[in-house]
Amino acid sequence: MAFRDGPFDQFKVPLVWTAAVVVVVALIASVLLIVADRRHDAAADGYGPVRAGFDAGAGPINGLFAAPVRWTGAVTDFVGGYFFAVSENRRLKRELEELQPWRDQAIALKNVNARYEAMLGLRTEPVVALATARSVSESRGPFVNARLLDAGSNKGVQVGNPVINEQGLVGRIVGVTGGVSRMLLLTDVASRTPVLIDRTDARALLTGDGSGNPKLEFIRGVDAVQAGDRVLTSGDGGGFPRGVPIGVVAKGIDGSWRVKLFSDRGAIDYVRIMLFQDFAQLADREALNAPPLAGLAPTPPSTAPAAPATRQTQSPSQPPAQGAARETAPAPSRAAAPPARPAPAPERPAPAATPASPTADTPSEPPPGGAA
Q1: pTM
Q2: Fewer CB in a 10 Å sphere around the end CB: N or C, the chain?
Q3: In this structure, what DSSP letter does residue 305 have?
Q4: Distance CA 236, CA 226 (A)
Q5: What is the mean pLDDT of residues 161-180?
């Protein structure tokens, strides 16, 4: 049976009632919206519970209406990512290729900084000035083990200076120019280093033979060396400071004692040159010249001028007193300072006194008959 054939087929709603219902519903919705949009504290007035109830009911409804929007966005992103995956992959590959050199540089700088930190942490006892250098070239062969360093006389490097790295002794300087120096490694056949055994204080000579482990020769004492003993510089001869670590003792396959170098534990690219000349530079001269020894200093020589000696000429025919009086008589006139104003003309000497002046310098002839 159709709806129009039912009991409500004659039911008609007046238009005025319909308009009134719509207006009432609109007013109620407006009031609810106004209540929900209030900005002040809801607990301060009577609208708090109403607003709370409206928010509780509107939350699920808003979530329900927003769900299709979220689903549509997710589907769009998925479809876009699927169709644009190839182009995105190509873009990421290009970025990776661009960042790869930067990654390599970062790793290299990290390693260099680690080496610098290790080098700057080196301390010597006693304190010796150090110069940092980098190995720029290497000469390696059966008889030559040397390297060129980028530090020379401009940094105070001199021939004979020891070279160390963060592990121990590496070699010594054998040639210096303005900005480059040559380092002879401990393994070179021309290398000779006086050393001592840390455990027994026995002296020996570390000799390079071209292999990776130099030999210990001229060991003093009986049973002075054992495998595993630490080897240090002895300082004998004044070429190296005492106590620089070199390596540990090991038994070679030929039966000789050899040294495993500490410097082989790392790369020999960054080194430090010890500006060591002799042990005199390690002494504190001010401490040596302390007050108890200050009196031993030599007295400086006197600078007062000596009085000039007066030359006297004695006539053979006159007694010594008379000759001295004649010699010293004209001295005041020669030594006197000139007067401030012109002096009057000197009087002409008497004829009797004229022959007296040459008698002071020229000896007079003896009178006739005076030989007796």
Answers
A1: 0.49
A2: C
A3: P
A4: 22
A5: 92
